[in-house]
Write a sequence for this structure.
């Protein structure tokens, strides 16, 4: 590996300033993303920065401005609730502080101008912090659908592994019941107020939360004609 | 002795720690009690019971024949598809998601591939879109046949089962002709579809349309006026539109309750707005309405297939995106020993073009990079809204793949449909939900 230095040393500081926005994945060195001496492309000095969702600014376009106006009217504390708004590939994501999740969800469901009647999906994403830092890496993601207006938006709440508590939306959207159980099972996000937060896909006596990024995939070497092939998570990867 | 962990109570024994079978929470308050000295009966139905559609476990609390409480236990078919997909390339992801809902594999593939394409910011050629529509609608009919066949068998209508599986077998023949496989096709790929329709597919599909039309008419005639069938379904397993929305039920469940919500109409994708078809609804909200809606849906799918087939024949062109950095490089052909890379292509990469070989090798082993971000794409599967939530960190492998599986969501409604009814009606209600445990547990 060369001693090439990153030209933008402040890049990470710049990224870190966006609260609740952990960069995804590792910094990628080289052309092929391999670590060690595998990069023979001559571009091993190349550095690509980790990605972070940058906040969007008005006007968002489409129906998103209308939704945000209606939401601000229906939920006066919206400014305080919002960490940032992300507009990416025509999808609007509201990053919320967890204290406000229930209030915002209620307003989104009940307000005449919003009417997000259907909670399509709840899932988790583990944006693993780099270098072992325990940032708010566990994201609870809610996809809402308004059947009345045919609109969709996404809510996101992020918590740390040490304090993985998110209020449960089951009282507003009963369909979240199993989906929150799945997210607890897979990511270890604790949904406070859930009627029965138990494992649902993994066995009851399972330890750990398998879809966290620091949970290994598992597997054993497979021998084939004298050669030994490691399990998928231990093979050479291109990042 | 129970520990204080409210999420997973356990007790210490000489053999080590033993966890509560029901998994803690408020389960004990429901199913605790003294089974020997109470009138009520706790009945475990499943996980290995033919009428629970795979490995679904129903825990019923009975008083006589009436269900007073019930819970579901799922997860017996969890195979870690979402986690596994994080360790393969974006293209290989297709082969994982196709195994979720194994009765509607082409819907899983389409939702996944449309999400990948949205992340990439690309579109697929028109012919590939048409073929996707064709394949999905054939798949919708084949999935509904399994629902009718298994549901009929569970309620004692064995001719529905034999006829349904016969008709489904014909769907499989068509899918096999096109993709080479009966199930788990991995036919729809990011950027298009794996290969074009084979010669003679149009005639074969037209013949199949005629046969299927007759089969639908036959089963419809057999069941619609059959008094036992009517009495087993009518007024059983009721849920209204409000209940559907609260519990997240979509698809035929919602349409049988009276709301014409079909994403092919409401949020059209793949050009569905250009086809002439109706969204069947009914206002009963019971198992009977679901029967009526699904049979009508099969007929509507046939209408779409007739139209799309005509368009495919009038739309020549590639079936894979014209971007060599994304499109799968190999050209497949049928040889004497089965399907494989075409001899011309093998000759090119092995004998004449070193660059082609490198390109092939890089694309197949390393895969393509997908710009970072997250998307949610939903399609109307035979069971409702099938959503793919994909997160990319800019690498060659998905950072997170989540499928919003309608089987998983819809099963939550089982207690609502069954509590207060008879044990026998539980079977009818679960059958009408049409759950596929491969999709539910993923």
């Amino acid at each position: 590996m060369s001693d090439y230095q990153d030209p933008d040393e402040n890049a990470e500081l710049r990224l870190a300033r966006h609260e609740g926005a952990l960069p995804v994945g590792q910094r990628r060195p080289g052309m092929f993303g391999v670590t060690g001496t595998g990069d023979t492309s001559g571009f091993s000095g190349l550095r690509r920065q980790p990605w972070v969702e940058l906040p969007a600014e008005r006007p968002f376009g489409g129906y998103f401005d209308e939704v945000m106006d209606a939401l601000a009217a229906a939920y006066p504390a919206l400014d305080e609730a919002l960490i940032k708004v992300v507009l990416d590939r025509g999808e609007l994501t509201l990053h919320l502080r967890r204290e406000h999740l229930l209030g915002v969800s209620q307003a989104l469901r009940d307000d005449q101008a919003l009417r997000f009647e259907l909670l399509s999906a709840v899932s988790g994403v583990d944006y693993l912090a780099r270098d072992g830092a325990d940032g708010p890496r566990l994201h609870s993601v809610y996809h809402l659908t308004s059947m009345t207006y045919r609109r969709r938006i996404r809510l996101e709440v992020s918590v740390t592994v040490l304090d993985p508590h998110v209020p449960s939306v089951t009282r507003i959207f009963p369909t979240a019941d199993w989906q929150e159980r799945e997210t607890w099972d897979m990511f270890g996000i604790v949904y406070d107020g859930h009627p029965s937060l138990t494992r649902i896909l993994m066995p009851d006596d399972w330890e750990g939360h398998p879809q966290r990024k620091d949970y290994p995939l598992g597997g054993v070497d497979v021998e084939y004609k004298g050669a030994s092939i490691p399990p998928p998570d231990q093979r050479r990867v291109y990042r | 002795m129970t520990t204080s962990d409210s999420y997973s109570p356990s007790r210490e024994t000489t053999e080590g720690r033993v966890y509560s079978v029901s998994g803690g929470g408020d389960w004990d308050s429901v199913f605790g009690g003294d089974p020997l000295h109470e009138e009520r009966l706790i009945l475990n139905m499943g996980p290995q019971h033919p009428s629970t559609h795979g490995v679904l476990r129903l825990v019923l609390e009975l008083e006589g024949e009436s269900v007073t409480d019930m819970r579901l236990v799922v997860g017996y078919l969890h195979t870690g598809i979402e986690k596994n997909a994080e360790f393969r390339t974006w293209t290989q992801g297709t082969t994982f998601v196709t195994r979720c809902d194994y009765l509607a594999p082409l819907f899983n593939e389409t939702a996944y591939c449309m999400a990948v394409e949205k992340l990439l910011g690309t579109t697929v050629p028109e012919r590939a879109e048409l073929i996707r529509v064709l394949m999905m609608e054939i798949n919708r009919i084949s999935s509904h046949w399994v629902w009718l066949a298994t549901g009929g068998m569970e309620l004692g209508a064995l001719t529905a089962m034999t006829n349904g599986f016969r008709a489904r077998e014909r769907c499989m023949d068509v899918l096999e002709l096109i993709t080479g496989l009966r199930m788990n096709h991995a036919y729809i790929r990011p950027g298009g579809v794996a290969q074009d329709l084979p010669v003679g597919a149009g005639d074969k599909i037209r013949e199949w349309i005629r046969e299927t039309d007759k089969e639908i008419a036959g089963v419809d005639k057999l069941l619609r006026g059959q008094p036992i069938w009517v009495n087993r379904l009518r007024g059983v397993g009721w849920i209204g539109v409000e209940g559907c929305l609260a519990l997240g039920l979509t698809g035929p469940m919602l349409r049988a309750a009276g709301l014409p919500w079909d994403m092919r109409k409401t949020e059209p994708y793949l050009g569905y707005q250009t086809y002439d078809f109706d969204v069947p609804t009914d206002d009963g909200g019971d198992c009977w309405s679901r029967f009526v809606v699904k049979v009508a849906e099969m007929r509507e799918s046939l209408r779409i297939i007739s139209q799309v087939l005509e368009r495919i024949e009038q739309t020549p062109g590639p079936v894979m995106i014209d971007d060599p950095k994304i499109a799968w490089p190999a050209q497949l052909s049928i040889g004497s020993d089965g399907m494989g890379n075409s001899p011309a292509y093998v000759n090119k990469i092995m004998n004449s073009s070193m660059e082609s070989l490198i390109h092939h090798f890089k694309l197949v082993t390393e895969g393509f990079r997908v710009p970072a971000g997250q998307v949610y794409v939903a399609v109307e599967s035979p069971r409702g809204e099938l959503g793919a939530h994909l997160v990319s960190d800019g690498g060659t492998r998905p950072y997170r793949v989540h499928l919003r599986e309608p089987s998983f969501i819809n099963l939550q409604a089982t207690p609502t449909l069954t509590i207060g009814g008879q044990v026998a009606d539980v079977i009818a209600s679960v059958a009408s939900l049409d759950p596929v445990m491969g999709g539910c547990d993923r």
Observations:
- The longest strand of chain A covers residues 118-126.
- Residues 176-187 of chain A form the longest helix (12 residues).
